[in-house]
């Protein structure tokens, strides 16, 4: 339980210092400046007092219990200090100092050392090499951190390994005049993890929205599980950086990790129900809306404005993000026509005109809150000198505080002149933005979370018809080359999972191949199989569309001449008639499961990169989304009067592939390419499996 | 010449008022508050003085010359007031009042009336229904506007019809502490146009960057020509809204224009060399960078940081926008290793660490300014309490003021605490942003303008081999159905422009058709032609791939039976062998010329929408860009060991289509679909032309 870490009653600082510009001094100053409600114990054997507080020579000599100890001492002294804390009965240590695993093997050894000691005493370590935590709860007011942004109490909590980005986000809220709740930046995170903190924030009733930033995930499976549970109840907004090769390299250089462009994090975000962002500014703005507004029940927005152009921009952004602008109902239109100026534009957007009064704004907001055609309300508000803007602001606050439907406000003003307007809206908790696009994107994020929370969960079918034991046995026996399984092993495994494969046989020579082809029916494909052969087609080991016995014989004899491989056999398979080529694949993702891929085959995958991904276990709903997620989905549905293909069969295939790789985690990579889809059914024409 | 409008020496306000909350009072207040350097004459027959200034009963009684007259009077009084201004010799009138063409025919008539009178006297009208202008030039300080944002003098000028958006942008600069120069929002713009103002700003030496917002273009050809000339010398940053159907509708409702989603504006921006934006925030941030920084000579950026995560975000955004991060040269690396902390990360990004000093920052900036591997420098700067941040700020200012290479700064601080740092950077003209993504996008915009200004202009080939006269004659004679020309007329016109078409003949009956086919060579296509037939293929009027005389005969006879049309003829054409199907098209754009389209044919255009557009006259460089602009360009270049197609021939085709529609503006629409491209050559297989 991290409660004592985030809600400490007494904090000690080992390495407390009298030097103004040192971290050991700053943390004490911050605790005092922020009005910490508990006791602060500077620990310094050489000082009597620091910043007017009595200093103690050792943690052991502190009076009373200590919930959180900061360590601001050289790395080499940390293990002994942890030992002392253990003796004192301390349960949480924030190690601000660096010099551990981020610096190399020597530091890593120290980290391992203190961590073992901490475990002995049941101590949880936050950090090392970290900023620390802040809790702005008026009952706590713990600024256990050496940074400089003093937040007002609020409902947004921030968690990230990266102190730099967490602080930038923190400053973003501060600049907007929006309060925050808990702030946690845990650097190396050798013990207390991000998922653990997110879990804690999920239970913290003062946190309405959780904001996080990642450059990669340490323990993706754990992250996935925790975040999924929390996100179902409370919005989690996240951003991942290190998306480009260069960005990943920059991330590796500052975390000491491996440079890796990963796709899995995005898929985890999606599957876990995280509202993800590509831009930190958008993330900040969205969090501001989540902090005070209810979640909309749909995507239908009403726009109220007192100026034209900004409403056009807002409309573009809202519609571009998938929101709709329903027309006003007759009743609403009639209601507003009675109340607004005759020249006002009564529609959606409704333009009350620059001369529009507080009563006009209120009438519009009331009408849209009442009208079932709207799920949320967007307010554009420029402050002309000739109207009573303070009253308009008060009405917006009043409606926002009803918490009926979410409202965001694009406030277009000079904040130095219209200080009362700004103050009224800010104190009233109205999410205010300075640009129509920013306000619109914040509103769109609320709608996005609604869609996530209400999405069809689907199910992972149990597939009682699969024969996992046979597949496992085939896999165990399969001595492939460079991990690649022989075609027959591949087909046996697919067969065991009832994944439809074109009929096949294995033949030792030309005569057997002809016999096999006769049994299968022409045309057939013949592939050369031998432990030494990997890239069959490059070596002339594949012959397609063989229409008769003579072609088969001549193909096999040709391969025998050309390849001269030991243990050469021939895989004879039905050559499937023309249909729509699609591809399916799976790839193991460390610490997580597999990524399953689906896309259009042939030139579409190569040139148009028209593929979509998901994580195992894929649900029925997710498989359906994958089919409709490709750009060329019209090809699945049928175009130019052609019939579409059997999407049910493709969905089943995706689900069976997901089941197969979930059951057989030793599969590193699997490619079904192509799968030929028909009006009825879909068959694997060629497949590869590589094991670890 | 608009000089007296933007640099007035005396301003009169007809409709000046003593009432505090009236526009006629506010304009006078604004002029006085802003420190206008000239004379202000309130005009009001019922007042002796307004805001302490002597009021005059009529413009005719003003002492001395008046450069600019504001009119803040009901619409119906405007024509007479214009007449009076004419008599007084006034040359510029800003009509702030509304009630003109934006309200309907009655108002439009008044607008026409006063405009005619103005022309008689050589008066230029700014507006009506507009905010007005501001010029912050210390010699002028004209705030001829009723809004409330008082700018500091700067180098950014803003021009837009929409007062709402112009003001939002204006506030954006003000909030960032960045000055602006000229502000012009001309509402209905019945006389002085946006292009005219842009031209003026192009010549204004105090304007370094021009910012504009449009919802549509009144006179696209004029806009194009003016903006192109100006953008070659000075950056023009623009945003267009009304991009969605709903946004276009919202735009129409507030401008009284037609709802229209246009593509032409984007193409004009591109062709004219405008730096275009989809987000007003990005536009504002970019302008801040342009206002003080030189244009980079390339896209190679060096990043300096004192914190890890934000550099990762910046890297992602910069690389995503097409910039590159070259490694440090050995010399630069050695230079920095000597000067930075041993633990600093000497690479690109270079991380000086949170403890990095002003000397460290300076060394990095100097090295990157010196090193030819870099075109621009990105600085991440968080302000830890334990370093001398003011000195770091001063070094950034010093390097920025060298104006060697552009520099932008992501300043991560609490602006209320680090006021000196903020002031030093702001006064030093360093473009500062609060988020790494925002700073990176501003830098990317500088690079984008560099690329625009240095792009290959190409040329519009004269094509002396085309026979425009024949084409014009064919067009004149062509009595098409619903504007569609007969196939033979289409082929004749294409032939006149040396656009290669599959060989063709016209036949009256089956016997003639067979004769034609014999002459052309099999296989052929036969199409039924008659004035009453438009959608040939739907009516069974097209037969493809006819391999012999018998097939031709039977196809023709079948059509004769089925169609029973008057004047039925048969268009016989060579059936082209398989190649890569592409499409080419052109569509007239009102007031502009034509939009030319190129894309992949068949299902690529239908499903993947893989098409690109450009405006006539298309240059050689633009035609080349069109070829490389499609997503499936690899198909043109050749994939899977297949040879590519004749891109030279396709480029030539695009240029000839551009020439053709430019010469024959009565062509409303032209479709060459498909064009079959081969390793050598490309031939039109089917074509349609529709005239007005």
Structural description of this entry:
- Two copies of one chain form a homodimer.
- Chain A is α/β, with parallel strands linked by helices and 692 residues long.
- Chain A has five domains: 1-131, Rossmann fold (3-Layer(aba) Sandwich); 149-292, Succinyl-CoA synthetase domains (Rossmann fold, 3-Layer(aba) Sandwich), CATH 3.40.50.261; 295-453, 3-Layer(aba) Sandwich (Rossmann fold); 468-574, ATP-grasp fold, A domain (Dna Ligase, domain 1, 2-Layer Sandwich), CATH 3.30.1490; 580-691, ATP-grasp fold, B domain (D-amino Acid Aminotransferase, Chain A, domain 1), CATH 3.30.470.
- Chain A is built from 24 helices and 29 strands.
- In chain A, the strands form six sheets. In chain A, strands 9-8-11-10-12-13-14 form a seven-stranded mixed β-sheet, with helices on both faces. In chain A, strands 24, 25, 26, 27, 28 and 29 form a six-stranded antiparallel β-sheet that branches. In chain A, strands 2-1-5-6-7 form a five-stranded parallel β-sheet, with helices on both faces.
- Chain A starts with a helix and ends with a strand.
- At the A-B interface, helix 5, helix 8, helix 11, helix 16 and helix 21 of A face helix 5, helix 8, helix 11, helix 16 and helix 21 of B.
